[in-house]
């Protein structure tokens, strides 16, 4: 089995769990399909990377990609990504200024 197919298979099987695992993990995903896995989405600004917005995804598992609420979160993330490119928009409060850090 190829590497990408193996990762996709593992991600799909994890997303079908009825309860989240007790261990906390961080995955960097560069596609909107990450909403199936994520409980929280951090939208970053480019050059230099700073936190723009934090979106909490409070959908039950397993996640239905055809549900209206899933579509709502998908639109919210896509809108935040578009707005993050606008330099006139402020960063996330308290985390974008120097020394604010991204550690929580």
List low-pLDDT spans.
Answer: 98-104
- Would you tell me the structural class of the helices and strands? alpha+beta
> Would you count the extended β strands for me?
2
Number of helices: 2
Explain what the structure shows:
The chain has 104 residues and is α+β, with helices and mostly antiparallel strands. The chain has two helices and two strands; from the N terminus they run αββα. The protein has a two-stranded antiparallel ribbon with strand order 1-2. A hairpin with a 4-residue loop joins strand 1 and strand 2. The longest helix has 17 residues. The C terminus is likely disordered.
Brief overview:
With 104 residues, the protein is of the alpha+beta class. 29% of the residues lie in helices and 12% in strands.
Topology diagram in text:
Layout: H1 3-15, E1 40-45, E2 50-56, H2 68-84
Antiparallel strand pairs: 1-2
List keywords for this structure.
104 residues; alpha+beta; two-stranded antiparallel sheet; 2 strands; disordered C terminus
């Amino acid at each position: 089995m190829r590497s990408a197919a193996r990762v996709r298979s593992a991600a799909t099987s994890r997303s079908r769990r009825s309860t989240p695992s007790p261990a906390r993990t961080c995955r960097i995903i560069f596609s909107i399909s990450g909403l199936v896995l994520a409980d929280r989405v951090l939208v970053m600004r480019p050059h230099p990377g700073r936190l723009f917005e934090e979106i909490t995804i409070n959908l039950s598992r397993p996640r239905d990609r055809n549900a209206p609420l899933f579509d709502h979160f998908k639109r919210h993330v896509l809108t935040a990504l578009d707005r993050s490119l606008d330099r006139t928009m402020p960063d996330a409060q308290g985390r974008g200024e120097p020394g604010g850090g991204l550690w929580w």
